[in-house]
User: Fold this.
Amino acid sequence: MSTHPTLPRIFITHSWFDIDFARRLFNDLKARGFDLWFDDKTMQAGHRMAEEINRGLEWCDVYIPVISQKALASQWCWEEINAAIALSNQPGRNNRPRIIPVITEECEIPALLASRLYINFAKRYDVAFGELLQKGFGALSPRLTPSPGAATLPRPPSPAPPRRDLQLQAIGIAIGVVIACLCVLVGLYLLPSIPNLPPTFFALRSSDTPEPRATQTVPTSNPLPGTLTIPMDRLAHSVPWLPLDMASSPGVYYYGFNVNKPPFHNRVVRQAFAAATDRQAISDLAHRLGARNARPATTFVPPETLGRDLYGQVGIPFNSGKARTLLANAGYPNGQGFPPVVLVTNKTGGLTSSSNVEIATAITAMWQNNLNVKIDVQVVDAGMVDYTGQLSSGQPSLYRFGWMADFNDPDNFLREVFHTDSKTYKGNFSNTQLDRLIEQAATASDPTMRQSLYIQAERILCEDQAAIIPLYHATYSAQ
Assistant:
């Protein structure tokens, strides 16, 4: 809790790529007695990201989005900023939370934020931090309480406007009310078709703070991430949206976590292991072992099926420094106290009789080097059917798996493996938001909308929840 009860409560959000800056800002503000929202310390296994983010927005007095080029390219960044602005504009909230963007690098400030006070931290952290304290909210500014449990920041008094200005303002307000009513009616008509989705941003909050009720976030339209691999006019308006060449069936090779079993019940631990895995090195190894068209992956659905290559844009990229930081935040600094863990892989079903074991050996060596944790490997000498049965009965903490297209559509990957109703072994992972996205995408006729929904599903699966570590995509012969 804050050591100065009169200080404003602060909610910081950041993209995955800005985690180091956000953590520094969090630590500096906390050292001065501020109470902050920090997901690494507050969010536990089983918490739903969107609900926790919305509670944080309700709770805070000041909302600080960390703005960078990567953040501005994120659809979820805009969803959360829009949600904060909408909440701030609600009647009776007195512009709470106050929105103060902080800029980490030279980039074009969006018009939506340019009119607000923002603090430029690019190459001037210490000076900018002082400006944030003084201009943003003041190091010892008392809260103004408009209603029980709510707090706002003091604002300087404004001079009384001339009478003609008041008349113009009244006309402007009347026009604004009419426009707002029309927007509400349109929103009520469209809202049932819009999914409730979790932001890619990670929330920052310190512990021991009550959590108010959640609000709804609404997505906005932004360019899709990744590289286009298949022209949109080649995608059909139904499932499947692409033909399948049985001689070159797209597939994915991945490791999965048992999300109910410690230590991987903690999603921050799962994120640390994903960040500690060099997918380029693993795909190079797979290529040497005979994998056809092997490419590193940070998402589940192959580019030949999704129509976009999301590598490095969605999911968790390799970054050993961030991996160590995440593991330390999860309670295992430099791997200290990490419990014994076994990775289970099958011997057969790989590229060669030993390829699965060679890949497992390489990855566990990476984890030893990057996280200072030792993972043992258990090799099951069984066919795929028996191996899957042993996974279901044995419930290992870590397991190897793969999937190859039966028909060339993302639905064949995401629904068949990770929908809650799927019988495929998935390490006890279940997510209602992911289910909803999969179901909506299957019935959408617009390929652009379908692709967007599947990308949002990938963010949940491979980034926010990190239920799996995609290793590489390849093509296989299904004949």
